[in-house]
Every structure is written in C-alpha cells, then in structure tokens.
C-alpha cells in the first residue's frame, strides 16, 4: 500500500503528478480490459442459460413433467434465483475461487494443492482418495466441454422457429457451421477472442436485463419470488414435484465451474467484479421477466425467453443469442484447455503441445489436441441428438457432479491447509453439500434419458488418465533402473572401468534431471565405447513467468569432478518463450563449459523410450494397450526444444510394461 501511495502522490503531497495520473489511467484501463475480456470468455455459458432453463423445467415431454401453475412458477423462479446465489455467488465467487495453484483454478488446481502436501499430512490416504475423486470431477468437466457447445448453440438457433416455424429444418446445419467456425479460431488465443467477445456479451446482458424489466412491469408480483420462502415452501410443500424440477433448475448454474477453471485466464478479481456488477443482475432480471410473462399467459411457456421481446425484435435477438452461445462454448473450451494442461503437468496425461497466447497472463493457452478432440465430439453430439431438449437431460449430471466434487475438495483444503476450524468447515460444508446432493439425486432420475452420456464420457476420461498415471509410474521406475546414478556412471568413466575412446567434438544430451545418467549417453558409452571431448547434460525447466532474464537463463554444474569435459547445465525458460536449447547454450562462456563448445557442429542426443507390452503383471492387459495407444499423442521432443534435425541423434531403449 505504501508503494502505491508513493507512486500516486505528487512531490508536494497534495495532488498527483501528470506522470502518476497517466499511470493510474493506464492501470485502470488495463483492469477494465481484463474485466471485458472475462465477460467475453468466462460468463458465456452461465450467461446464456436463461434461453432454455425455464422452458425445460415445464417441458410437457419431460419424463417427470412439472405441472404449469402460478404457484409452481413462483416456486421454480425462486429456486432458480437462490440456486444461482448459493452455488455460484457463495460456493464459487466467495469461497472456492480463493483456492488457486499459482493463479490457476479448476478442480485440477485443487488436486495439485492436495498432492503438494499430502506426503507430510497425517491423513495421507484421505488426501490421496480425494485427489482421485477430484480427477473424476475433472473428467466430468471435460464432458461438460463437449455438451455445452452443442446444447448452447442449438438452443439459440432453435429461436428461428419463433420467427418462422419452417426454418426449423435448418437448425442443425446452421449449428454445425457455427461450431466449425468456433473451433477454427481457437488458435488465435483467449486474449484476442475475449477482446472481440467482451463487447458482445456486455450488449447481451444489457438486452436480456432490459427485456426482463419489460416482463416484470407486465406482472410485478413476480418480484415476490426473490424471497427464499417461495423456494422453501415449494420444496417442502410439493417435494414430489420440486425434486424433479431440480433436474432442470440445475441448467441455471451451468458454467459455474467454468468461472473457476478460467480463473488462470483472467484472475479472481476480474471475474468477481463482472459477476456481481453485471452478470448476476442481468440473469436475475431475465428469469423474473420470463416468470412474469408465464404468469400473464401460460401459453408463453413455449419459448418465454424469445417471447419477452416484441415480434420485430425476435430475429435480432436470435442473432445476438447465437453470438452469445458461441461465447458460452468458448468458456468451457478454454476451461477444458486449462484442466487438460494441468492434468498433463500432474502426470495424468502425456506431454501435450501447449501454445501460450498471452505475454501477460500465464493461463491463456491453446491446446491443439484437446481442441480437435472437442471439435469432433461436439459435432457428433449435434448430429446425434439434433435438439437442445434432447441434450438437456444429459447436461445436468456433468454440472452437479463437478460442483459437488469441487465443493468437497475446497473444504478439505480449507481445513487442512488453511487451518480453518472444524466447526466452521461443517457449518459451511454441510448445507452446501446437502444442496449439491439434492441436485445429483434429481439428475439421477434422468439416467436412462440421456444422463448416462456425460457419465460415460467422464468414465472414459478417468480411465485414460488413471491408466496413464499408473503406466507412467511403471515406466519411470524401469527407466531409473536402466539409467542408474549419474555420479556412479561418471566415476566409472574417470576410473577407466568403462573402456571408452574420446573423440573430438561436442555432444549434448537432454535429460530429465541431474541425478540419473541419460540413457542416450549410457548407450553411446556401453555400445559404441566412445565419448565426446565435450559432453553437456542439459536439464530444462519452465518457470511460471513470461520470460526469464538472460542472466538467469543458464546454471552450470561441473558435477564436482573438475576438468573432465562433462558439464551439467540447467536451462530455464519462461512460459511464453520457445524453449530453444541451442540458443540458450550459446550463452555459455568457455570456462563455464570446461572448454569451447562447437555448437555449429555439436550433436544432440535424445533418449527415446519404445514401450512394449510385457508379461509382468504391472497392469491389466487392456490397460497396457490403452497406455501404449495414449503414448502416441506425446509431443515431439526435438521439435519442441528447437534442436537441429540434421544433427539430432535419437537413441532408443526398450521398456516393457
């Protein structure tokens, strides 16, 4: 606080200087830009839920229909409002978003926090179990990333039927074209997409808020639904109806997990401000306005969102809604990037090619493999279900499952990591988890009507990630055994126990660390019985900063052996930098590398592990096959580290699972 004051107070202490005023203006503009960007990415999913939530609750074709009556309308609107307040505002905005992993959010961030300290925690088994549960939550969120674009865009384009019923046959083709365009622009990055979408979402929330006010003025009694007594009386007095209504009410909170998962893209403050000052008021007005419209005429239940505006305004609203649902899809797509990238860093997935798209925010990334997997999956869902109503039954399960798991992990972290008293944890966790449990139970009634789909997607993702984790442990153990100690290996070289001939030149071996000998180096010595005059063992680290200063780029360690021509080098890169190893090594001074390095002619050696299915009972046979298949998506190391292709030697080794 002192430093900020010193920057904004002038030399006389009575007014800001011109320089400080310009600085404050620039800082305020930057913060505003982040909030606008967050509006353009984070709130798209939850911001478009008014399009389909109320009409889905009272859908007469539902397996468990909710009778349309004035009393039920008040109860449902009140349930929607308080569900949004409790789950989004309290659970996520006020509580869960305080738990982050270096700025990253989402259920995988909570798993990371658990993994960081569970080894020293007295309840290690509980922490490990919760980390596994959290992994299933991440798998559910990935299913959400597939369903949200399909149901959101379909629901908006279906608005064409309120303009002209004959346009209904074009809904699916138009939706497919929009989805193709959305996934094609992902490579441009979240920051540029957010800047483009932000103003559109501001217009969207202004329009739906204004339309909601118009509906409220037609029947102001709907404002009574803001009282929690209507939600409580509906649940308590008509539980047999309200319980099944919860399966559709949950649609009003879709996108809550995206707020948390996208926190690394924009930060907690920007998301909180956007929610409290624009998104929440606009959603509340829209739901109240739709409720008022239905109370005025029950026939309006066919499409209360679009019927809130006059006939002349419905086509423009359909177009705006389509743009907004594209943005809704963007929210979960960027969240899926974050979740999958974090899962890869934790060892649940192979190394994925990740492109960082911002020099100022570490969380803004593009993951090509995840992008195209989602693209194919979303198109498949669109052509298979062909309507938002058919997908609605499947949608709630992913949302409720992920929210419940996130809530559970948060309170566990709050108690054991932040030392929050147990009584306070119980006071917060019990009511929130009871509410989450009600939503899960209600959605289980839709299991045979589509809710099985997200569970199948989640189970498949969970199986892939746990299989990769187990297989990676087996491979790492076998690789460490094959590599052996680096110190012992060099001792044998220096003592002459390993008969080798020294040849001129420089050899650079990429390695995972400094404790074990690179497999490529060991193979070169043991099989070719040669070593180069200058040997550099390189370990690469990625720091959580955009760029690493040049004077901190390289750290040299002679391994304590003096002038034997073998050097261990650690190279650090920022997350925005391309990890170019040759360029970094060029900064080494001759005395640092125990002699001049001829980088123009140096040979680079990579250790490549060829995995084979073995007879040892390390995993079930089908899981071995799954692990081997998953290993093929690993990014190419030579290309990733900028190695010259014509001077890169890949020495393979075999490891059996």
TrEMBL record:
Entry GO terms, CC: plasma membrane
GO MF entries: potassium ion transmembrane transporter activity; symporter activity
Superkingdom of origin: Bacteria
Positions of region (Disordered): 1-22
K+ potassium transporter integral membrane domain location: 35-491
Membrane topology, record value: Multi-pass membrane protein
Subcellular location: Cell membrane; Membrane
Catalytic activity: K(+)(in) + H(+)(in) = K(+)(out) + H(+)(out)
Bilayer-spanning residue ranges: 32-53, 73-95, 126-147, 167-185, 197-217, 229-253, 274-295, 315-344, 365-385, 391-411, 423-444
A Pfam family reported for this protein in Swiss-Prot or TrEMBL: K_trans
Principal localisation: membrane
Family to which this protein belongs: Belongs to the HAK/KUP transporter (TC 2.A.72) family.
The name this protein goes by in its record: Probable potassium transport system protein Kup
């Amino acid at each position: 606080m002192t430093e900020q004051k010193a920057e904004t107070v002038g030399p006389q202490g009575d007014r800001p200087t011109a320089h400080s005023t310009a600085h404050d203006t620039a800082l305020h503009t930057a913060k505003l830009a982040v909030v606008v960007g967050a509006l353009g990415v984070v709130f798209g999913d939850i911001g478009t839920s008014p399009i389909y939530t109320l009409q889905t609750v009272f859908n007469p074709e539902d397996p468990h229909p909710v009778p349309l009556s004035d009393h039920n309308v008040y109860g449902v609107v009140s349930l929607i409002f308080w569900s949004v307040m409790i789950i989004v505002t309290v659970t996520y905005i006020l509580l869960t978003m305080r738990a982050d992993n270096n700025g990253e959010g989402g259920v995988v961030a909570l798993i990371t926090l658990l993994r960081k300290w569970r080894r020293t925690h007295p309840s290690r088994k509980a922490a490990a179990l919760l980390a596994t549960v959290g992994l299933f939550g991440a798998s559910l969120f990935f299913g959400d990333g597939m369903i949200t674009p399909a149901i959101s865009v379909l629901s908006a384009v279906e608005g064409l039927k309120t303009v002209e019923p004959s346009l209904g046959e074009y809904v699916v083709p138009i939706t497919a074209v929009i989805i193709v365009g959305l996934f094609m622009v992902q490579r441009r990055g979240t920051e540029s997409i957010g800047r483009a979408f932000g103003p559109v979402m501001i217009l969207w929330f202004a329009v739906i808020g204004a339309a909601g006010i118009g509906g409220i003025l037609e029947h102001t009694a709907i404002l009574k639904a803001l009282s929690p007594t209507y939600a409580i009386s509906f649940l308590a007095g008509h539980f047999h109806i309200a319980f099944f209504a919860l399966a559709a009410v949950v649609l009003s909170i879709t996108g809550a997990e995206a707020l948390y998962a996208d926190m690394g893209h924009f930060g907690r403050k920007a998301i909180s401000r956007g929610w409290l000052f624009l998104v929440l008021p606009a959603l509340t007005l829209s739901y109240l306005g739709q409720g008022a419209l239905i109370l005025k005429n029950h026939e309006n239940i066919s499409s209360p969102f679009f019927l809130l505006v006059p006939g002349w305004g419905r086509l423009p609203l359909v177009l705006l809604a389509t743009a907004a649902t594209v943005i809704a899809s963007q929210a979960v797509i960027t969240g899926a990037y974050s979740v999958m990238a974090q899962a890869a860093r934790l060892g649940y997935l192979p190394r994925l090619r990740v492109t960082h798209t911002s020099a100022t925010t570490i969380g803004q990334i593009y993951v090509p493999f995840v992008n195209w997997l989602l693209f194919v999956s979303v198109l498949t869902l669109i052509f298979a279900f062909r309507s938002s109503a058919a997908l609605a039954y499947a949608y709630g399960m992913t949302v409720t499952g992920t929210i419940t798991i996130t809530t559970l992990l948060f309170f566990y972290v709050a108690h054991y990591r932040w030392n929050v008293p147990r009584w306070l944890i119980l006071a917060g966790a019990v009511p929130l988890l009871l509410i989450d449990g009600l939503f899960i139970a209600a959605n289980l009634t839709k299991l045979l009507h589509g809710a099985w789909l997200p569970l199948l997607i989640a189970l498949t993702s969970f199986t892939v990630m746990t299989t990769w984790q187990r297989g990676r442990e087996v491979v790492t153990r076998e690789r460490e055994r094959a590599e052996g100690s680096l110190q012992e290996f060099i001792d044998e070289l220096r003592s002459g126990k390993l008969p080798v001939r020294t040849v001129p030149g420089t050899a650079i071996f990429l390695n995972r660390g400094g404790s074990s000998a690179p497999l490529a180096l060991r193979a070169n010595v043991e099989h070719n019985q040669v070593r180069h005059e200058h040997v550099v063992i390189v370990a690469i680290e990625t720091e959580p900063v955009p760029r690493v200063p040049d004077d901190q780029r390289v750290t040299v360690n002679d391994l304590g052996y003096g002038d034997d021509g073998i050097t261990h080098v650690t190279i650090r890169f920022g997350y925005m930098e391309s990890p170019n190893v040759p360029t970094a090594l060029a900064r080494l001074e001759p005395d640092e590398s125990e002699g001049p390095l001829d980088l123009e002619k140096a040979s680079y050696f990579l250790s490549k592990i060829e995995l084979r299915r073995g007879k040892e009972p390390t995993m079930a046979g089908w899981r071995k096959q799954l692990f081997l298949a998953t290993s093929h998506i690993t990014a190419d190391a030579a290309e990733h580290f900028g190695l010259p292709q014509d001077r890169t030697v890949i020495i393979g080794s075999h490891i059996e699972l």
